[in-house]
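Re: Re: token formats

Sure, here are both.
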Amino acid sequence: MANAGIQLLGFTLAFLGFIGSIASTIMVEWKASSYAGDNIITAQAMYEGLWKSCVSQSTGQVQCKVYNSLLQLPGIVLGTRGLMMASIIFSLISILVDVVGMRCTTCMAERPEQKDKVALAGGVLFIIAGLLALVGVSWYGHRIAQEFYNPFTPTNSRYEFGSALYVGWGAACLTMIGGGFLCCNCSGGGSGKAPNYPVSSSSGQPARDYV
């Protein structure tokens, strides 16, 4: 039988990962302008995200521009968008499923075995959501590092990891850990029923004496 405390812990971690994935997706600091050079102008800082780019002046003024054309966006931005949105959708479905399957809820209380299976399915969906977010953030980070170390990239066009990447990595880990708690907790529980053994024909019926 599943442990309600472990289920609640796993659900809490996965839910925090879900919130972190949303925050990472809407943040603009996916990559930030690099200052690794001698001729870098530090009067302004440039940031690029999945939905818009911003320029922060030394005076504190921030100007942002939303990406207007979808077809002009690089493939890395479109791909990361899709992975992060898929992760958020999977996490949302997992939350709805686990609300039904967790032991601390009253849904399907009369069928504990089916309830545990529903919670297990929600945990698997959380793990898939975490993997999608991890792939998206890591893919984007790999492209930033690849362009940074490319000798043909101009010095003033190099970027470094932004804070959104770290939020995304942390959110992906929390989501997978929470889903793992839900899966391990449900898969290790017994069904609560005694095993059924076949009844022997010799002992199943009383002996009869015939005259």
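Second one below.
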Amino acid sequence: FTEVPVLMIRPQMAKEKIEGCHVCTLVTPGEPQVLLGKDKAFTYDFVFDIDSEQQHIYQTCVYKLIEGCFEGYNATVFAYGQTGSGKTYTMGTGFDVNPSLQEQGIIPRAVHHLFEGIQSRRDRAQEIGIQAPEFKVSAQFLEVGHTKKFDLTF
């Protein structure tokens, strides 16, 4: 089990811009560090600023986890933060059923990566004339809020 602390600063929502809210974070150039206000600095393994693309976040933090699944390892992605901090945006579990490819979050990318990887491994086995590998995929989606756990698995 390896924990990799990551910070993703989400873009401001339209409502925040209209209300004149200001971004109070500053990413230290070339360092995985964020400044909050003028005097608090926090360091992580990775820091993604407001303009970071979802694909880059996925490639950096999740891609290898999914590849590890093909070697028999389990993978967990855990998003933590206060209400409105960007967990839904980053994970890609919002209400927009047809987000652009650029806006897709971690979960849709991971599902696509996983099933594309399964199919390519089956195709390769067929091409070289060996028995196709078997895969068992199970996923669980949980939401924890206000000391209550909600199982979102469908």
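The helical segments are 14-18, 54-61, 63-69, 87-91, 106-128. Residues 1-50 form one domain.
- S.
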